[in-house]
Amino acid sequence: MHDMLIRGGTVVDGTGAAPFTADVAIADGRIVEVGRITAPARETIEADGAIVTPGFVDVHTHYDGQFLWDDTLEPSFSHGVTTAVGGNCGVGFAPVRVEHRAALIELMEGVEEIPGIVLNEGLDWRWQSFPDYLDRLAARHYTMDIASHITHAPLRVFVMGERALNHEAATADDITRMGQLVREAMDAGAIGVSGARVLEHLSSTGANVPGTFAADDELLGLAQAMGSSGHGTFQIIPLGANGDLMFDQTGAEGRRAEHDRIVRIAEAAGRPVTYSLLEFRADPDDWRMMIDESAKSLADGLRIHPQVGLRGVGAMTMLDGYHIFMLRPSYREIAHLPLAQRVVALREPGRRAAILNEQDDPSVVAADPKFAGFIAMLAGRIANIFPMTLPLDYEPGPERRLGALAAAAGVPMETYLYDHYAAGDGTNVCTSFMLNYAKGNLDATHDMLADPVTVGGLGDGGAHMKMICDSSYATFALTHWVRDRTRGPRLPLELVVRKLTSATADLYGLTDRGRIAVGQRADVNVIDHAALSLKMPRMAHDLPAGGMRLLQGSSGYLATMVAGTITRRNDAATGARPGRLIRSRPSAA
């Protein structure tokens, strides 16, 4: 008697092999049979007409704090994710001394836009060392399995104190001590080490992140310590990776030098390295060089895998989030009102005229120039904003740009945008693609995903809470890239599923998952692919201290299982919490 039988589905097994029709039997949390199965089961899911995939392994999240107050882990939970890896981009909360807790919150608030008030309420700080932090996570149960890197910034601050915050060079003794703590973390089950060199990452005080300017001897010391454990993956954001947002930081030769540094890290570690790779306007073809260099390294025996975003990356704007009118005096007078009342006030002719003719409040600009600069950046990109409508189109053509829509309507762009926000119940959303959309389409993203050296990721679950909701990327990939794209070639279903499952699982040595095969952990999705769809992003007020975040639902997941337990059925949570902390070990590599 099996525990579960998934009958007659189209199995997309995660290896990249062509889909095939089969039954899948599950017992004791494992897949025990794939094929034509006649043995009975305690429960049967009729999957004829559906696809059966491994659960998705999301290796780039920022749930470091959320792991401690939330066992559901939205927005990832609604999109077939069964394993989530935190501790990315070099920022996190362990190890930590009491006197540096505030600084780590400021780093996470600035880099990942998780409000400090949320973190102050949500973190209980019942740890000091990284092993302590893992023990804290291990005491909790989740809708999915979780894992975490040890991150460079808190490690550096723990060892060097104020010298780290002042970006002083690490001494040989500092590097030795950091290496010892990395090894301690790896022995406790850290899944790897993460760092970042990107200049746009700033704390909420405007300071660069500790580790941004670390010399090679420090980075290689961390890599060697990780490698000495016999397991782990090194994740890094190289300099210039976000050059689209401000300026080209490095030029072609500088970026090649960054890849050379990644090669040295891989050599020192003897372990896989993954780095963020996106298309940015400052050099729209930079990604080709980086992929070529990674492919050469892979041929030489170094496991270097660019991690690519699966769609355009940018800023979502709405009345309950960020928008270009929020610093204008007449808007600030009503900003405190509940959304329903605020929308009514926005439609008053006098207030509408005042807001459209005002400049930003100079006192606010002076008090918070960083935030005012962000709003000014949104205003400067107004012609390239896309109002979002259902069904959602994440590859809109030029006719969908706000500039074109306003011109067709015969009104100024700000007027068109204002009326879009104020329409209906006030929940209308716009998006502005800053990365992966340099040429007004997703052709570069298509080619990055199609390349065998890359893995899919960069969903940033738990981060940029009022601006981005890219952790829905798995649902997007299965719909847009496989089924719906009209502005260019699509991608095979089996390739997309591999990028979301075995490719990411193998990168992190999680060889017990990522495939539909006998002996594998029964992390499984059953999906009505023909009906699969993304819902409109919405703002929820459900964080600690009443903080807000964007969520994006989906429709079409008939079942999601973690270790054979159904966590979602017909797009609704079952309440099950089978997920646990994964402690990475050498035997898993």
TrEMBL record:
Instruction: Provide this UniProt record's keywords sorted from A to Z.
Output: Hydrolase
Kindly give the Gene3D superfamilies that the UniProt entry links to this protein. Answer: Metal-dependent hydrolases
In what residue span(s) does the Amidohydrolase domain sit? 43-566
- MF terms (GO), sorted A to Z: hydrolase activity, acting on carbon-nitrogen (but not peptide) bonds, in cyclic amides
List cellular component terms (GO).
cytosol
Put simply, this protein is called: Amidohydrolase family protein
Q: Which organism is it from?
A: Alterirhizorhabdus solaris
